[in-house]
Amino acid sequence: MRRSPAALLFAALSLVGCSTYQAPAHPRPALPLPAEFAERYRLPEPPREDYLVPLDPARRLWRGRLTCGTEHPEFHLLLPPGEPRPFLLCMPILAGGGDLMHWVAQFMAGRGYAVAWSARVESAMHPDHDTRAVERLLRRSVVHNRAILAWARTQPFCRADQQAVLGISTGGILAGTMMAVEPQLCGGVLILAGGDLPDLLEHTAEGRIARWRAHRRAVDDLTDAQIGARLRVDLTSDPARLAPYIPTRRTLLVSAAWDDVVPRRNQDILWEALGRPQRLQLLALGHYTAAIDVILPTQVILRHADAFLRERLRRAATE
User: Fold this and answer.
1) Which residue has the higher pLDDT, 103 or 163?
2) Closest CA to 247 of 20, 19, 26
3) What is the distance between the alpha carbons of residues 274 and 270, in angstroms, rounded to a whole number?
4) CATH code of domain 48-316
5) Cα dist from 126 to 130, 139, 198, 287, 304, whole Å
6) Which of 210 and 180 is assigned the larger pLDDT?
7) At what angle do helices 224-234 and 207-220 cross, to 10 degrees?
8) CA separation for the pair 14, 36 (Å, rounded)
9) Angle separating helix axes 170-181 and 131-152, nearest 10 degrees
């Protein structure tokens, strides 16, 4: 049965508790990105704007599409009054989550950011996707979002030197990869994300991924261990693997203690790999309760994200 907003609010307020872990006083610096990774996520050409059309002029809501080689990134854009503004790019979740991303954009635009949220490249974890197709989808998603960042840097509404990323769930994993390949980003907020993706895909309770594993077992005649072995070879777009190239001090990690979609050990793997960045640990909440019951009614996560990004943007000019 669908719960009323009041019931959601009461449930969230009664459940929300959180612990905040500060980054180390002397966080480890990011290493230069190796050429092989830079080439893997390289933009094939500078992005060209196909269109940018107003959807709701009163709310300054736009829809756009770019061309970048053979890729065509699509996005929505929400602009607060006044220009130029810090630019925040939000990453899509596994199941799309258009309404959720729109709400996130509205909240952050209300805090003074020019906010874009990208469309998914294609359906994720489709039964026909083998392990190499999963990696190809992640790589194309990074290229799409890099193209949006590159385009935004040429626009009058955006402070080219003040860009950040925010992602939820799969979007948080993509945001981690973006932090590695876009070292000029001032900050990144990785919400409900984890590292060691082969292990995560093996143990997650996410139904779509469980069905994908079952399909791979049936079609490819593989055991779970063999699927995991293939993932370890093919799946390189892993934020834990790219963590040495991500600045610890520019990263905020948000996790949920009872998350069975991104298991606790995968949250911890990513946190350790990133050099123990600032972390907001939500207590007594799982993956979907954190994504819906907290973000929407109480705004706990986004208030922390806003405070973190404001500090990162303030410091960016001196780093």
Assistant:
1) 163
2) 26
3) 6
4) 3.40.50.1820
5) 9, 16, 16, 21, 34
6) 180
7) 100
8) 48
9) 60
pLDDT tens column, 107-156:
999 999 999 999 988 877 777 788 898 899 999 999 999 999 999 999 99
CA 169 – CA 166 distance, rounded (Å) = 10
- Out of 2-11, 230-239, 251-260, pick the least confident: 2-11
Domains of the chain, by residue range, sit at 48-316
pTM: 0.89
Give yes or no for a contact between 74 and 145, defined as CB atoms under 8 angstroms apart: no
Q: Is residue 69 very low, low, confident or very high in pLDDT (cuts 50, 70, 90)?
A: very high
pLDDT for the residue 96: 57
Instruction: Please provide the DSSP assignment of 255-268 as one string.
Output: EETT-SSS-HHHHH
DSSP state of 119: P
**How many other CB atoms are there within 10 angstroms of residue 266's CB atom?**
24
Taking alpha carbons only, the member of 294, 311, 306, 315 closest to residue 18 is 294
Q: Establish how many alpha carbons lie within 13 A of residue 262's alpha carbon, considering only the half-sphere containing its beta carbon.
A: 33
Q: In this structure, are residues 302 and 108 in contact, taking their beta carbons and an 8 Å threshold?
A: yes
